[in-house]
Amino acid sequence: MSEGRPWPTDVNLNKGEQVLEIAFDDGAQFHLPAEYLRVESPSAEVQGHGGDEKKIVPGKEHVRIEALESVGNYALRLIFDDGHDSGLYTWDYLYELGANQNEKWQTYLAELAKRGLNR
Predict the structure, then answer these.
(1) Residue 28: which domain range?
(2) What's the CATH code of the domain at 70?
(3) What averages of pLDDT result for each successive group of 10 residues across the chain (119 residues)?
(4) Is the residue at 3 inside a domain?
(5) Strand 8-14 relative to strand 75-80, pairing
(6) pTM for the predicted model, two decimal places
(7) What is the pLDDT of residue 13?
(8) What is the rounded end-to-end Cα distance, in angstroms, of the chain?
(9) Is 37 exposed, middle or buried (0-12, 13-18, 19+ CB in 10 A)?
(10) pLDDT, position 52
(11) How many domains does the chain have?
């Protein structure tokens, strides 16, 4: 662990299933689908420039991750086939996405439905 925070021990992009598989040293293991990672991107395009400006990103059901790039020893850059490649997925953020995946995904689906948008 780094400074008491979970640290990744294994990172794998399952290109066939389009799932980022990540394991941490506290035993947590997450399978994060490309669509989920795209709509929860840490980029300003998705999160906004302030704390409560998050954008709902529709139409990403079939988005694919083309590549992963390491950024130092603290993050990944994901390159999606829709051209999106901004936003750094820190280890802490990936852990948060995994730990809260069900809740975040249900919130996303509810927001899409409320706005009449499709995945």
Answers:
(1) 8-115
(2) 3.30.2020.30
(3) 81 97 98 98 84 86 96 96 94 98 97 96
(4) no
(5) unpaired
(6) 0.93
(7) 97
(8) 36
(9) buried
(10) 67
(11) 1
